Structure of Carbon-monoxide dehydrogenase medium subunit:
Amino acid sequence: MDFLRPSTWEEALAAKAAHPEAVPIAGGTDVMVELNFDRRRPPALIDLTRVAALGEWGTDGDELRVGAGVPYRRIIEELGDALPGLAMASRTVGSPQIRNRGTVGGNLGSASPAGDAHPPLLAAGAEIELASVRGTRRVPAKEFFVGPKRSVLAPDELIAAFRVRPTAGAEQFAKIGTRNAMVIAVCSFALVLDGAARRVGTGIGSAAPTPLRATAAEEFLAAELDWESRAPVPVAVAAEFARLVAAAATPIDDVRGTAAYRRHALSVLARRTLTWAWGGMR
Ligand SMILES: Cc1cc2nc3c(=O)[nH]c(=O)nc-3n(C[C@H](O)[C@H](O)[C@H](O)COP(=O)(O)OP(=O)(O)OC[C@H]3O[C@@H](n4cnc5c(N)ncnc54)[C@H](O)[C@@H]3O)c2cc1C
């Protein structure tokens, strides 16, 4: 197996163009598991860890641009205030070792329906920046996932960054697993309440072939919330929001849970996160 070690972003894009079958490796917390268990035997790996640009983040107008190689630990430590929903999700990923190595870019690259970074990115309306020697394009998170572990990433493309506008409001994330740490989500849910734009954003994980948004639930809640007075959310509104979130999912029965349990759990997470987020509006 060849091991390609670009040291600049341009070299990395050139390597991917010349070797589209080569598998990029960032933190390696997904790739190494696949190699160790012989589930994958690519002809080449492209090590992205020396590409400094991937580990950088900064503001671009009113957006935050976060390099694909920023690990969860730094999302929590450096971006916890600006991206609280993603930071909450990052705290639930694996263990300290996994959070030191694992990256949001790697989570996107794997495109697992259970990836914990995906619901907060969907809820926040993030865009994924993809690049190749042909140029750069921005794909809304809701269009990035096309099937279980499949995304719109072309063979010659790399994930450069994700871009998101920090929310003027509140963000929440909740995940159900069979224990508190080192657990793949049975289901997960992220919520964004943006008081300035009067927008509701949602993200559902582990309850459909891809991570997805509950758009009917978003539209319903945005119209029902009393954004002006911040009056408590009526019980019937919270219940209908929860019902619409559960209805958006298309879960399956598997070793981690049944479809019926996942639907029920999602409605509970939707109600809970709504209560927390509405109570914590900035
Ligand atoms: C013990 C353990 C616990 C875990 N717990 C969780 C958890 O709780 N929640 C969760 O969501 N995940 C979990 N994971 C999975 C994994 O840690 C995450 O998916 C992590 O985000 C992967 O990031 P990485 O940088 O290690 O990716 P890598 O393993 O380096 O790469 C993952 C995929 O993304 C591709 N890739 C990486 N970077 C790029 C790029 N810039 N452009 C294009 N493609 C790229 C790779 O080719 C590969 O297909 C766990 C893994 C382990 C081993």
About this structure: The chain has two domains: 2-164, 169-279. Residues 169-279 form a domain with the Enolase-like; domain 1 fold (CATH 3.30.390.50).
